[in-house]
Design goal:
186 residues, mainly alpha, globular, 11 helices
């Protein structure tokens, strides 16, 4: 059970939620998708909590803070006191690489991700930089973290994306993938 299994769950969840599917339906779809490559019940429970977190952040009322959703996800998925953990940490390394391993195993990577998401919930770029600088399994952790923090602070890192060498090619591929959806009105 590893963080890599959750990378494609976020976009799948957002798609279902924006189509108006019920949370339970989206969770079931995402779990089924997850189990194609990562059939593990513990990871499945975290997937359910992750989808609930995405739903809470995506569908929350304007001006509603993200704190409660992040705290609830930590409590329900792993029984973590996220606010207490964040308050006691002197540095990010106290949690990521200290209390929890930087490896991909979900038992460590999920608490690390939740800590980073909570600490940097208002600053997407700071969250992504902190994650990168902490090393370890930061690619998959960063992919999931970026989605959560982007929803938390309602921002993106478009200027970073535009600096990619193959930015235009990537944009063309995205447009090609989305064109059938646009034709059907989705």
């Amino acid at each position: 059970p590893s963080m890599g299994g959750l990378v494609t769950v976020g976009p799948l969840a957002i798609t279902g939620l924006l189509h108006g599917d019920a949370l339970a339906t989206v969770q079931a779809t995402c779990r089924e998708h997850l189990f194609l490559t990562h059939p593990d019940e513990t990871l499945g429970r975290i997937c359910d909590g992750y989808v609930a977190l995405v739903a809470g952040l995506l569908l929350r009322k304007a001006g509603e803070p993200s704190d409660g959703h992040l705290l609830e996800a930590a409590r329900t998925t792993m029984g973590l006191d996220l606010a207490g953990m964040a308050a006691r940490a002197r540095t990010d390394r106290d949690i990521v690489g200290g209390r929890y391993s930087t490896a991909c195993y979900i038992s460590d990577s999920w608490p690390c991700l939740l800590y980073l998401a909570f600490k940097y919930r208002d600053d997407l770029k700071a969250a992504l930089l902190a994650n990168t600088n902490l090393g370890g399994e930061n690619a998959h952790r960063g992919a999931v973290l970026g989605g959560i923090v982007s929803l938390s602070c309602d921002s993106t890192a478009d200027d970073w994306f535009s600096q990619l060498v193959d930015c235009r090619a990537i944009q063309s591929e995205i447009a090609a993938l989305l064109s059938p959806l646009r034709r059907t009105g989705l």
